[in-house]
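agent> Task received from the user: take the single chain below, predict its 3D structure, and emit structure tokens. No templates, no multimer pairing.
agent> Plan: (1) validate residues, (2) run structure prediction, (3) serialize to tokens, (4) report one or two observations.
agent> Step 1 OK, no nonstandard residues flagged.
tool_call: predict_structure(input=
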Amino acid sequence: MISLDDVDKKILNAVQLDFPLEHRPFAVLGKSLGLKEEEVIKRIRRLQSEGAIRRIGPIISTKKTGGVSTLVAMKVPEERVDEVAGIINEYEEVSHNYLRPANYNIWFTLSAENEERMQEILGEISKETGCEVMNLPTKRLFKIGVKFNIR
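)
tool_result: status=success, residues=151
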């Protein structure tokens, strides 16, 4: 369980959509939140080490850069969710990994440089976890924004 105070929550809410593209982004972010740059950096490092933030970085259009991507759903026994999520999260090519209250309960996006690498990762995850993996490649792209309201 990660303990968040009000400042942590403000930082998490701020970095989701409007991360400053500046030379010193944490100073800009701090100014907007009434914090010093050093405090923002310290808190973000702690939130990363505790698992509240997985990474801060751009989302690049895989298709426009010649890569491939897919949505993956997995059927994972409840008692193995944390273990399997840990295995999935070891791959840099994985993003948007989340738990759903459904038969296929772990969902994530997988982007790779090519189809061969994507299939290799799917095979490795399936073999290592022993869980059913459903590959749901994009047929038609709908871009939506997602922002979690951290309270």
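agent> Step 4: summary for the user.
The longest helix spans residues 115-129.
agent> Done.
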